[in-house]
Every structure is written in C-alpha cells, then in structure tokens.
Amino acid sequence: MKLRCAVLDDFQGVALASADWGPLADRVDVRVLREHVTDRDALVAEVEDCEILVVMRERTPLDAGLLHRLPRLRLVVTSGMRNASIDLAAATALGITVCGTASASEPPAELTWALILGLARHVPAEAGAVREGGPWQSTVGADLSGRTLGLVGLGKIGGRVARVGLAFGMDVVAWSPNLTDERAAEHGVARAADKRELLERADFVSLHMVLSERTRNLVGEPELRAMRPSAYLVNTSRAGLVDGPALLRALREDWIAGAGLDVFATEPLPADDPLRTLPNVLALPHLGYVTRANYGRYFGQAVEDIEAFLAGAPVRTLG
After folding, report:
1. Catalytic residue among 59, 187, 238, 297
2. Whole-angstrom Cα distance, residue 63 to residue 319?
3. Does residue 51 have an active-site annotation?
4. Of these residues, 110, 267, 304, 307, which one is catalytic?
5. Checking CA distances to 115, which of 149, 157, 179, 256 falls within 20 to 30 Å?
6. What does the pLDDT look like over 160-208, one tens digit per residue?
7. Is this prediction's pTM over 0.90?
8. In the annotation, is 286 catalytic?
C-alpha cells in the first residue's frame, strides 16, 4: 500500500504546482489541506491516517500532545531549517523523523522594505483614497534619506535590510546582544552601545532576531516608551519578540507613530483583533517568506526529503 502524506495549510493552493511530486507518485498518496484547522480533534481526524506530514513554517504547531495522537506518523517535513512549533524531543521519542528545507533571506528582507515604505508614505490610505474616490493627497510622507534606521539583529536578513537603508541614504545603526564593532563595520553600519540607545535614535526600528527564551518580549513597554513619538516599529521576524499588550497600548496612545507587522501571536489573526483596524498599523498576513522562488525551494526539497526518507537515508534532519 502507498503511504499517505498531507500538506497542511496550503492557503494559496500552490503546493502541488510548486514542485514536481511525480517521483513519489507510485509510493505516496499526497493530499493538501487548504484551510487552517485550529481545532485539534478536527486536525487529528484529518491526518491520523498519514505517515507523512508537510508543514509550512509554524502555521500548525506539532506539540507532544498532538504527536502522541498520530500513531502512524513517521516523517514530518517543515519548510526552513528551524521550526520552534515542533516538539523535536517528543518526535524523537516517538520515532518520528523531522526534516527541513532551505529558506532564502531575500524575501523577508524585501517585505521589510515594503512595510517601511508603506508606513513612511501612507501607501494604504492614499491608494485606498484613489480607488474609492476619496481626497487627492491627504497625508504628508516621512523621509527616509537622512533619517536613522535601527536594526535589532544584523544577521542574513538584517544585513540585507541594512544595505538597502544605506542605498536610501539613511544612517543605519544596529544592535544585538552579541554584535561586535567589527561585524557592524563589515555591513557599513554603526553599532549602538545598547538596545535603549538604538531605540532612542531610530526613526524606523526593524526587528531581525531569532525568537528564544532570551529574546522573548525583547521589546516591551520600557522599550516602546523609549522610541520617538514619530518613530515606526517593523516586525517581520516573530511576534514573540514584542510584548503584544504593550504594543497595542503604544499604538492606541500614540507612544509611537505606527507599526508594520507581518507576524502575530495567533495566526491567522482573529477577525476581531484590534490590529486589523488600528489606523496606524500596516498589517500583512505573514507574507515574509511567501514568494514563488521560496515556495519552489520549500516544496521541491520537501519531495527530496520524502524520497531520502523512503530510501532509508534521511537528509536535512532536525533535532
């Protein structure tokens, strides 16, 4: 009998078209779930017959409790080589192999600039006014040239964001707990002495850190109050880097000018979440990694991972 594989959370319905699944056709039946399944009982009912799951980033957490309810499961493939929502220890204990794929740094860096530019020039409001016959020019945009871009994190993504900021003529300053003067100089940016200095100086603050217990709530009420009232916060990394209730208060009470957000504590974002309607928020549905090339990479290597597992020699294993 063929093995059964479910591809979860294929929101756009492109998983099967983004790669050649043909090499698996005689050994694996592949089906896709277009809708996100929040209810755990419903999810178990959907996939309990599967030996293989392919998951997109951290859309559906696979914790120990859920994994124990999937006794047939033998392989999980996640896009990217890091997925904090999968309990790797539980998977190992249950004999479940977890594999990843490559992921490019260009797409989230590009989307970061979409948010910065959208905020600076009030693109959603002005575009909406044109479409709806509203006022012609109702806002005054913020300049980028000569302003300060503050980067919390200067890794692969942060480094790319820095180069664009420099090309715009911005002063770029970066900080992270382990950032050195030498590393900052390699990117042509200044190193802030500490987090507070960066937040006080920057007109735009963009977050590019890995979420961990050390970095959770890295930006809380004290940090948001340290920012300028004219400054913007952009987060395309992980929602947990920012204290959510503090950010909501900062936006409502105008501690900062606004926020560009691509990541949220709960995804999809609940319909009644105030972040959907606050006028100083530019929110996107976690599109940082969602590009044709990246999806081709994710699903193409997912097929490779499954082939290697079936051959008894798993590749790109996690844990």
Report:
1. 238
2. 14
3. no
4. 267
5. 179
6. 999 999 999 999 999 999 999 999 999 999 999 999 999 999 999 999 9
7. yes
8. yes
